Amino acid sequence: MLREATAMNVRQNLGELLNGVQYRRDNIVITKAGKPVAALVDMATFERMRRKNDGEFEKLWAKFSKGFEDLSEAEVEELVNTEVKAVRSDMQAEQQSEQDKPVP
């Protein structure tokens, strides 16, 4: 779950916030004067981010974008919008299915 905490709150409740990150996989955005300045994330997320910074993301993006070289920007945008709608529809159907399940 994405949470937000002020720097003061982090100083006062660091142990509790760390437990949330470690055990519940919370991601905490730390703010100062209402602006995001840092984040607390679990180690698995941090490692993924670090690997991306090592050029892995750029390599994957280059491979991915080659598949769309022959399409115009408008065509790519249309494809993306279509897929986003499909995923949202699937998510809504899944949520509805969960709500329709009988409570034991």
Structure description:
With 104 residues, this protein is of the alpha+beta class. The chain is 67% helix and 16% strand. It has three helices and three strands; from the N terminus they run βαββαα. The chain has helices spanning 7-24, 43-66, 73-100, and strands spanning 2-6, 27-32, 35-40. The protein has a three-stranded mixed sheet, with helices on one face. It has two domains: 1-66, YefM-like domain (YefM-like fold, 3-Layer(aba) Sandwich); 67-104.
Question: What's the Cα radius of gyration?
Answer: 20 Å
The tally of beta strands, per DSSP, is 3
Shape: extended
Q: Average pLDDT value?
A: 87
Biggest β-sheet, characterized? Answer: 3 strands, mixed
SS content category: alpha+beta
In whole angstroms, how far apart are the ends? 26 Å
Unreliable stretches (pLDDT < 50, length at least 5) are none
Strands side by side in the biggest sheet: 1-2-3
**Element-level helix/strand string:** EHEEHH
The CATH topology name of the largest domain reads: YefM-like fold
Tally of DSSP helical segments: 3
- Determine the CATH superfamily of the largest domain: YefM-like domain
Second-tier CATH architecture of the largest domain: 3-Layer(aba) Sandwich
How much β-strand is present in the residues? 15-25%
Helix content: 55-70%
